[in-house]
Amino acid sequence: MKKTTIIGISRGCQFSPNHIDNDAAIFTLVAEKLKEMGYALELYTEQEFAERSVDGRFIFNMARDKATIQKLKQMEDDGATVINSAYGIENCVRKPMTELLIKNGIPHPASIITGTDRPFPGNQFPCWIKRGDSHAIVKEDVSYATTLEEANAILSQFNERGIPEAVVNEHLQGDLVKFYGVCGSDFFYWYYPDPCSHSKFGLEIINGQAKGTPFSANDLKRFSEMASKALNVPVYGGDCIVLPDGGIKIIDFNDWPSFARCRHEAGVKIAEYIHHTIIKKQ
Known about the structure:
Blueprint: E1 5-9, H1 20-36, E2 40-44, H2 46-51, E3 58-61, H3 66-77, E4 81-83, H4 86-91, H5 94-103, E5 111-115, E6 127-131, E7 142-145, H6 148-160, E8 165-170, E9 175-182, E10 188-191, H7 217-231, E11 235-242, E12 248-255, H8 263-281
Parallel strand pairs: 1-2, 1-3, 3-4
Antiparallel strand pairs: 5-8, 6-7, 6-8, 9-10, 9-11, 11-12
Helix pairs in contact: 1-8
């Protein structure tokens, strides 16, 4: 019997700030698990996929490049099954992510969206100012402001860089928690990041060492599953703040993160999710 072929697209290095090896490792692990299941694989970098004529019914990807995502959207529109959906990846861009989380009643910081060509709206400090048109690629894409002067300077810098809109989130003091999951599975992993450990941009230091405030991990998983479905990204990760009263607010949600701390278990569950999705489609 002919093997079912799955196309895999890895993430471009420019979209893996300080996590190139980790992103490559989870992609490779999922590909290995799918091969063990009996699938034939065609693997591409984002650049290769964008430049070549590629055709297939089933695709898994960690894409972030706009050209790759546009091509994946066209393939989805033509009937291909894509995990994560290119439409879902676009939903995780800061502005639509914020709008969808709030619209779907998922606990989230108070937020506003503003153009970068105007004065900062409001006087609630401290706050976070984040580029609205993309995932964070460089450290300056997510900035912490404590004064109106700092906020206006950040918006001005965004504008000079050609970033038209910014998302402003209130700063929430509490325990920063990172989490990973695969929607609909029993896999869910969370941990307190060490503010002094290696991370994308080192911003964890703002909230400092976690105090270990009790909270409901079941609630965190429930909110995460809600966000996963609202954004259409079944393979996901994110960040939340556990407030002093134990409440939870999701502050970031990502399509297919590196799963660095739980890679082996995550790789198995992601491959299983892809497998079960293909079975349903055949």
